[in-house]
Amino acid sequence: MIFKCWSRNKFSSVNLLLFSGLLAAVSACILSGFAGIYFEKILKTSPTVSVWMRNVQLAVFGIPSSFFNSILQDHEIIFNEGMLYGFDVLVWVVIFWYCVGGLSVAVCIRYSGNIAKNFATSAAIITSTIASIYIFDFVPNALFLFGTALVIISIFLYSFSNSS
């Protein structure tokens, strides 16, 4: 039915982009949830393997695919200028913070769980937004404020339900 409507151009390009974006966001949420649960299972079922080793094991799959993708997209620059062309101090600082963030996520999942990691991520987004309000004069809209309230309420409800 959908393909039939697409072929008749009954969907505008805006509706198609909205549908595609919504489908991508829902898919990302579902895959992220399953990945978090699976990662928690991996970390907690084998406590003898360190968090560092688990990250190395996961990187074995991530590094080749990232390398192939970078060669595919930027092969001309990489072959002419080198793999690290354009990397300055700021890029290395960002890479360092991503490494620290990845390790802290792994430690958080290992010792508390996936739900706590999601709450910590949400709280970090809210904290970053509050900092952006003062630093960059960012003005959040009503929908963002509503989402912020939901996150804060859910954190309190989750912490009170676990304490009793």
UniProtKB/TrEMBL annotation:
PROSITE patterns tied to this protein: PROKAR_LIPOPROTEIN (PS51257)
Record keyword Transmembrane present: yes
Compartments, as annotated in UniProt: Membrane
Keyword annotations: Membrane, Sugar transport, Transmembrane, Transmembrane helix, Transport
GO cellular component, one term: Golgi membrane
Family matches, as InterPro entries: Nuc_sug_transpt (IPR007271)
Entry protein name: UDP-galactose transporter
